[in-house]
Amino acid sequence: MILFSTRRVRCATAALAATGVLTGCSTLSGGSDEPSRTDQVTAAFYPLAYASERVVGDHFTVINLTQPGKESHDLELSVKATSDVAEAAVVVIVSGYQPAVDAAVEQNAKGAVVDAASVVDLHALDPDHADGAHADDDHGGDHEGHDHGELDPHFWLDPLRMADFTDAIAAQMSDVDSDHADEYAANAATFRAELEALDAAYAERLAACTRDTVVVNHLAFGYLERYGLHFESITGLSPGAEPTIADRARLQDLIADEGVTTVFSEELGSTKAASTLAHDAGVTTEVLDPIEGLGDRTADEDYLSLMRANLDKLAAANGCR
Question: Which of 56, 82, 280, 303 is the most exposed place for a label (fewest CB within 10 A)?
């Protein structure tokens, strides 16, 4: 089991003689003393890539290691992807979320590393869920590979934590490329303002709801509970796990007792567990996106538009005024 890093960013800044650009600052051990590329930021999956793009503007190319339509939990790195880690001036990750990325960073990263687990205040997972309590031992598939340890990695679903993370990216980019430090800070400030507006919209729309219980596919939405909602997951930590018979019965009772109208599946991955539960409980289904990546139906969307769509769906399902 790979636990989240609690180490703070440690900076060791060195000048690149040929370019004058600065690099350093890693939260993970390993790597090489050879200079990294100075025009590339490599991000582990979509929301990290989006935040990076908002900060760097046109000065760096952002590479997303997780291709659109792919489940981010299951990422395995190709030779090209490993090279993208090794050659990047900055690598942006959530340690503990994707073991293959953690290994590649520790073994190959030459540049700086921004690790959300070190710069964002992550929630502790509910002890009842952290061990995959919902997963059937006979049908859990590769659930063990999705063990996130003691902290919930899905911080990007909280707009204010996303803003803090973006500020950390901007600070690191300013160390790497001090000539454009003011621009990186300004870009982060602009994005923060948008995120604070999004946070205010969530708080206002979800302040008065008929219901506050939300049934979702997997344990990804805990950061939204600060808006007064309570999330119950069907499959625990693993999007593809199979719920036990006992948990299906418990959730059916919960749906009836709480007047839940909607069971939420996700954009990526199987909809079987959510659809089966909704059918058995006699309620409707809808998609609530954990925004771990873009899919076929969301290819033209972005983080902000998906967060707003999630808000609309939560307000409708819970009778919010």
Answer: 280
In sequence order, what are the residues at sequence separation of 6 or more whose Cβ sits closer than 8 angstroms to the Cβ of residue 161? 120, 121, 155, 223
- Extract long-range pairs of 166-169: CB within 8 Å, 24+ residues apart: 166/51, 166/54, 166/55, 166/191, 166/192, 166/195, 167/192, 168/9, 168/114, 168/116, 168/119, 168/120, 169/51, 169/52, 169/55, 169/90, 169/92, 169/114
What mean pLDDT comes out for the span 168-190?
98
Q: How many helices (H) and strands (E) does the chain have?
A: 10, 10
- pLDDT at site 148: 45
Query: How much is the pLDDT for 87?
Result: 95
Count of alpha carbons within 13 Å of 239, Cβ hemisphere only?
A: 20
Q: What is the pLDDT of residues 266-316, one digit of tens each?
A: 988 788 999 999 999 999 999 999 999 999 899 999 999 999 999 999 999
Instruction: Answer positive or negative: Cα dihedral of 154, 155, 158, 162.
Output: negative
User: How buried is 243 (Cβ within 10 angstroms: 0-12 exposed, 13-18 middle, 19+ buried)?
Assistant: buried
Measured CA to CA, the distance from residue 110 to residue 298 in angstroms comes to 33
What is the structure's pLDDT at 90? 98
> 125-170: per-residue pLDDT in tens?
865 544 334 444 333 333 333 444 589 999 999 999 999 999 999 9
Would you say 40 and 112 are in contact if contact means Cβ atoms under 8 Å apart?
A: no
Residues 235, 242 contacting (CB under 8 angstroms): yes
Q: Distances in Å between the alpha carbon of 255 and those of 204, 222, 250?
A: 25, 19, 9
54: left (phi over 0), alpha (psi -120 to 50) or beta: alpha
Distance of CA 28 to the CA centre of its chain: 19
Pairing state of beta strands 112-115 and 230-233?
unpaired
Are the C-beta atoms of 252 and 277 separated by less than 8 Å?
A: yes
